[in-house]
Amino acid sequence: MGVHTTQFAIRDPKVGLFEPVIELAAETVDEFAAKTGRAVIKVGGVVGPTRQAVREAAFLRDCGYDIALLSLAALKTASVDELIEHCRAVAEAMPLMGFYLQPAVGGRLLPVEFWRRFVGIENVVAIKMAPFNRYQTLDVIQGVAESGRAGEVALYTGNDDNIVVDLLSPYRMRTGHGDVTLRIVGGLLGHWACWTRAAVQLLERCRRAACGDTVPQGMLALANEVTDCNGAFFDTKNGFAGCIAGIHEVLARQGLMAGRWCLDRSEDLSPARRKRSTACTPPTPTSTTTPSCGNTSRNG
After folding, report:
1. What is the pLDDT of residue 102?
2. pLDDT at 240
3. Which terminus has fewer CB within 10 Å in the chain: N or C?
């Protein structure tokens, strides 16, 4: 909660939804856990300069969250030393999940050195990798491998453009203390904010396939189909213009939201996508089927 798909704008004083949304989500998850007997890990987003990030982490902790997902987007000019000091300060409040956010949507480049030193912070427990770039994803994995804590830090994909391959692949990295093989254990993806039952099924299918010595050809075909589908969700042909609005559009067509509006009123599908959207026939509000606008892949 409190990250990209929740909408960072909940922190805007004019919106004033950060605390209410964080609290409501925690209460809802706790109610679910109590009814089902299932343990649920609650992850909350932390952003901004150090003072704000520490304050947000402390609030998450007080609301019963388990991990803070730490964005460094606000520290675009900070050195690696300054970034590590920032992370250490937030880690004193609660356990951390690192976050590599792609520069195209506000993130910054983070070298292998940063990830190696970041994982050296004792209270770091996980990393979400979302640079949408294979080389930068490998930088994270290399840093974790070199840190000596590979078995203690869970890796999650945030690469919505490469979900299935990320989940299927072993990553064998050469380090000064020998070869280290890591795997990505799950995903924290805007893509999974809709069609969530199918996302759960996909994750389980990937886990089963990853246990074998070979990857079924059908999984590789599925990988390309899922990436193509994400192009439609996120409006990649128009510079990721629809990351949130695109997800809202899908949920609205399923009858799960009243519309695709975003807290930032200027955030919407690109003009080309809006024109394409009006050609589709939404389902009735009680339907949970996909929209009847032909192929939902191929950016349409």
Report:
1. 84
2. 83
3. C
Report pLDDT digits (tens) over 46-97.
Answer: 999 999 999 999 999 999 999 999 999 999 999 999 999 999 999 999 999 9
Rounded to an integer, what distance in angstroms lies between the CA atom of residue 42 and that of residue 32?
12
Helices 243-253 and 217-234, packing angle to 10 deg: 100
Q: What six digits make up the tokens of 56? A: 């947000």
Measured distance CA(182)–CA(137) in Å, rounded: 12
What the block records as the tokens of 2 is 């409190």
What is the model's pLDDT at position 281? 41
3-state secondary structure of 174: strand
Q: How far is 4 from 18, CA to CA, in rounded Å?
A: 13
Q: Cα(297)–Cα(230) distance, rounded to whole angstroms?
A: 8
Q: What stretch of H or E contains 60?
A: helix 50-62
Structure tokens at 14: 């004019």
Residue 42: name the closest of 59, 71, 64, 70 by CA: 64
DSSP state, 292?
A: B
Q: Which helix (H) or strand (E) holds 67?
A: strand 67-70
Spatial CB neighbours of 209, under 8 Å, sequence gap ≥ 6: 168, 215, 216, 219
CA terminus-to-terminus distance, the chain: 28
Q: Judge whether 180 and 145 are in contact, CB under 8 Å.
A: yes
Q: Name the DSSP letter for residue 1.
A: -
Q: Which residues are within 8 A (CB) of 111 and not within 5 positions of it... i.e. 6 or more apart?
A: 80, 139
User: What pairs with residue 179 in β-bridges?
Assistant: 174
pLDDT in tens, 113-162: 999 999 999 999 999 999 999 999 999 999 999 999 999 999 999 999 99
